Amino acid sequence: MPRLSLYKPERGNDFEFLDKQILEMFTVGGTDLHVYKYTGTDDGKTVKDHTQIQDMVFLENRDRKYEPDIYKIRAIYNVQDIDFDLSQFGLFLSNDTLFMTVHIRSSVETIGRKLMPGDVIELPHLIDEYAENDASIALKRFYVIEDINRAAEGFSQTWYPHLYRLKLKQIYDGQEYKDILDLPAEEGSDDTLRDLLSTYEKEMQISKAVKDEAVAEVQQSGYDTSHFYTLQTNESGETELTETEGTDNLKEMAPPDRPGYKGYIIGGNIAPNGEPFGHGIAFPSNPQDGDYFMRTDFMPNRLFKYKANRWNKVQDVKRADLYGADTANNQKGTFVNNSNTTTVAGETFNEKQGLSQVLKPKADN
Questions:
Q1: For residue range 46-88, what is the model confidence (pLDDT) as tens digits?
Q2: How many Cα atoms within 13 Å fall on the side-chain side of residue 342?
Q3: Domains in the chain, start-ordered, CATH in brackets?
Q4: Distance of alpha carbon 221 from alpha carbon 322, whole angstroms
Q5: Closest CA to 314 of 232, 242, 245, 244
Q6: Is residue 222 a contact partner of residue 265, using CB atoms and an 8 Å limit?
Q7: Of 153, 135, 145, 207, whose CA–CA distance to 176 is shortest?
């Protein structure tokens, strides 16, 4: 009597029987998957098939191409709640990865090859008919295969595998999926899938709102000390007072010679204690003692106070406007955003460039 064994070197009738029963489970209890078959890359110069890598430096396939035909297979997976996880590093989307199982033989026969990373899966049962958008078209859900392996639960008593396990991630509006996102949202529609699914416009609106708020809250660099008042003191350290003109007893604080605060970028374009001042490219001809004047031909602008028959420096205006045309008169406009050119020995250079550009060796004549 031959020895009993469930495993056999060949896939016999036992394997065929189990494979059909497993496929029937997917037919009865599975959900449809619409597969967009990845065929390779085409950057306009070089065409590569799905077994080749487009960019060997970054090991990525950017200009992906997909077949126009859509294949339908069956899959089973556990539906999970998608929650936000608030951790010490920020807000993360948890459980956004799907793991599905598909029948090996039927999927290969339908598609013509094994499923592979890069194939895009559409889940028709996740279409959102009530999305909060201004479109009358239901939003579709697309996922890309990131990894594929034989599922542990897919091995039958014969020790042969029957199931593939897919790891899926939701696609984004990127160069890789241009072929799919350029498709019409529905038959006869002028809108594309990108118009409905892309978050680009919303992200730009959020970025603009953040920038506008930053401009409103922080209009200049450095720290604002204009709301602090500085007392003028004499040599003994006492507060210096001056008599108000036309009175005998009323006294007031003398305007300070300079602000009493030191720190990183605190020089503003306002005189200490909010004293009135003039500005221009030349000092006034008839100044009075205690007058403030800002020279706008200095860079940065410099504030002076007239005392003891001379103009004494009070502070430099170091607080530059972060936005707008006024940045042209500070280091941000003339150094950080420098677009000037310089001619050296008959050769033109950009003033703002790396040393590697200046010091690059010239080709031998």
A1: 999 999 999 999 999 999 999 999 999 999 999 887 766 666 5
A2: 7
A3: 13-198 (2.40.10.370), 241-316 (no CATH)
A4: 6
A5: 232
A6: yes
A7: 145
